[in-house]
Amino acid sequence: MQQPYKDIIYYATLAPSGHNTQPWKFELFDDGIVMMPDWQRTLPIADPDNHALFISLGCALENLVIAARNLGYQPEVNYIFGGRGFVQILLPPSNTPPTPTEIALFEQITERQSTRCKYNGEPIPSASIEALLAAATEDKVICQAITDTTTIKALTDLVKEACILQFDNDAFVAELTQWIRFNKMKAAETNDGLYSKASGNPNVPNWLGKILVDVTVSPQSEAKKYEALINSSSALVLFAGQGNSIRTWINVGRSFERFALKATALGLKNAHVNMPCEAFDVREKLAKLMQLNSGTYPFLLIRLGYAPKMPHAYRRPVEEVIISHSEAIAAL
Ligand SMILES: Cc1cc2nc3c(=O)[nH]c(=O)nc-3n(C[C@H](O)[C@H](O)[C@H](O)COP(=O)(O)O)c2cc1C
């Protein structure tokens, strides 16, 4: 059982995660896998309530389930939270082959990426938008595509406002810088973090990268950069959740991952412009602008469009994310 389960976990680890922290661990059992958060890989400043951590776990869970279906299993997901966010995935063998949809999403797991460059602004056919929203359908999750220029302009203003708040905060910049891998050697050493080439920046030595952040990054420069990136995009997509709980966050992750895989299949690129979901004061304005009901929270804001492929981000090898039973107990 060990090797097939390791193969499934490999696909789970290709999921997106905030700052590419890869905040997951897996324990293998005879009848399945338990996935749990890695509390050493949190983002206390950018993500103080850990909603992004659990959205990331939801993305990994979705990849795991899709991979399991394609590798001959009938996964059964049980949420065993108890405040710690453990998810059990039982893996009985399947009597039914994967559906064409499951196969099509599986084929995109190794291709999907967060593409942070400028897009070409080409409009997206409405059939593609409909297919994306259908792929994202998930309990407790509301996924809205925004293509009208007035709402996009209002959302861009909120992205800029939140960006300025975040980059005015030295602790936020310090935490972000800690996760930037300024060159290939560093990225390949840690196999995590934000690899500068994947963000369209050149390889530079660590010491120079840190100086460049100090000298060239300011709240205003970041706000301007994101305004230009949104202006180059064809649509924005908002993922909101009913409730502000671990279960909702995981569902948002599952919904977003299917959306991202479907987008990849359609030749579309996506990247996060989440700042107004992360700066809690701005989040309220965002909820109001998008007329969300009370108790429904915006969690992800994504830009969508057409662009060339960028280098992929690194991942830790499967062996590093599998833990023993005693390690799992210690993590409780
Ligand atoms: C919950 C969540 C939040 C994220 N927030 C941001 C963000 O604010 N800005 C950004 O550029 N990327 C963001 N990302 C994308 C990650 O940085 C990206 O997934 C990671 O670097 C791995 O790269 P990949 O998606 O290309 O595999 C986020 C991803 C997730 C799952």
Would you mind describing this structure in some detail?
- The chain has 332 residues and is α+β, with helices and mostly antiparallel strands.
- The protein has 2 domains: 2-112 and 313-331, 3-Layer(aba) Sandwich (NADH Oxidase), CATH 3.40.109.30; 126-305, NADH Oxidase (3-Layer(aba) Sandwich), CATH 3.40.109.10.
- Helix content is 47%, strand content 16%.
- It is built from 14 helices and 10 strands.
- Strands 1-2-4-3 form a 4-stranded antiparallel β-sheet.
- Helix 3 (100-108) crosses helix 10 and helix 4 (126-135) runs antiparallel to helix 10 (246-265).
- Flavin mononucleotide (FMN) binds at residues 16-20, 52, 55-56, 59, 113-114, 116, 194, 271-272, 274, 313.
Q: Can you tag this structure with a few keywords?
A:
alpha+beta; 332 residues; 10 strands; NADH Oxidase; globular; four-stranded antiparallel sheet; 2 domains; binds flavin mononucleotide; 47% helix
Neighbour order of strands in the largest sheet? 1-2-4-3
Separation of the first and last Cα atoms: 25 Å
Going by CATH, the homologous superfamily of the largest domain would be NADH Oxidase
The CATH architecture name of the largest domain reads 3-Layer(aba) Sandwich
- The radius of gyration over CA amounts to 19 Å
Largest sheet: 4 strands, antiparallel
Low-confidence stretches: none
The kinds of small molecule bound in this structure are: flavin mononucleotide
Overall number of structural domains: 2
Shape: globular
Strand content: 15-25%
What is the chain-wise order of helices and strands?
HEEHEEHHEHHEHEHHEHEHHEHH
CATH class of the largest domain: Alpha Beta
